[in-house]
Amino acid sequence: MATDFGEKERLFIDGLKENTGRDLDEWMQAITGAGLTQRNDIIDWLRHKGLMFSKASWLERIHHNGGKPIYAGVPREAAPRRPARRREPLPSAIVIPFPANPVPGPAPVSASAPTPAPAPAAPAPAPSPPIAASPPAPPLAPAGDLDALLAKAKAYRPLAQHVLAKIRQVSPAAIITPRDSAVAIGAPLPFALLGISGKELRLHLSLGDHPFDEAVKKGQAGGGLGKGEALSHMLVLTDARQIDARFMDLIARAAARAGS
To answer: What is the mean pLDDT of the chain?
Structure first.
């Protein structure tokens, strides 16, 4: 079923006062009064006010639109909709017809005409030196499979995309493989696995004897390698501010252990 963004925006705005204590105009005045101009700064400020990431992001976009709803005045049938996924039909067989008239063959040689002497064969060219084949690029996950999996993160989908992008910065050659409820990074054995849910994201890492602390917890069973097995460490992610210099160092350590 397609998603009606215009209707979602109307429901979001109608419920602002009841759910947050302020209506749209009051939020727009509050954002303007905060004196922030950068998108991420505004979203972080709204998060500190107790809003979920998805609601904070929507309010920031409306504020960037001059404080006016993005789909205001747009008829329901004209508002953009996200189409439901559907299977494309297989192409039908291609039939190549034979030509109506046969292709004429070479003209017959007259019996009285002398047979010309064959021309001397040209010398065979020297073989070219072999060209080294470039290493194959790491396969990417099918876009449809990854998109469907990230959709399960709901409000945390932008955070999941941000985490994967940062991992790609550290290890550009790492293979990304969608699973039922997680994204595996690295092959044949993953050095990281991002668990997807609408409640939180869990990033499992292979860090060996790296110490545990309040943020870097012990890995849990089923966290990456198979039934009853786990990657050694785990981060619970709910905020983009957790993706900091220490986060990047932990990713680099895990990738180095796996040779990725």
So the answer is: 77
Query: Which DSSP string corresponds to 47-63?
Result: HHTT--HHHHHHHHHHH
Q: State the Cα–Cα distance between residues 109 and 114, nearest whole angstrom.
A: 9
Whether residue 195 contacts residue 201, with contact meaning beta carbons closer than 8 Å, is answered with yes
Q: Is 18 helix (H, G, I), strand (E, B) or coil?
A: helix
* Domain housing 21: 3-78
Return the closest-CA partner of residue 193 out of 172, 218, 219.
219
Distance in angstroms (rounded) separating the CA atoms of residues 212 and 33: 42
DSSP SS3 for 64:
helix
Same domain, 74 and 147: no
Note whether residue 42 is domain-resident. yes
Residue 28: per-residue pLDDT: 94
What is the pLDDT, as a whole number, of residue 57?
A: 92
**Gap between the Cα atoms of 70 and 97, Å rounded:** 54
| Domain stops at, among 26, 57, 78 | 78
The three-state secondary structure class of 29 is helix
What is the count of structural domains for the chain?
2
Q: Is the pTM of this model over 0.70?
A: no
Separation between Cα atoms, residue 176 and residue 157, nearest integer Å: 16
pLDDT at 44 over 90: yes
Are 162 and 67 found together in one domain?
A: no
- Strand, coil or helix: 147: helix
Tell me the C-alpha distance between 223 and 174, whole Å: 18
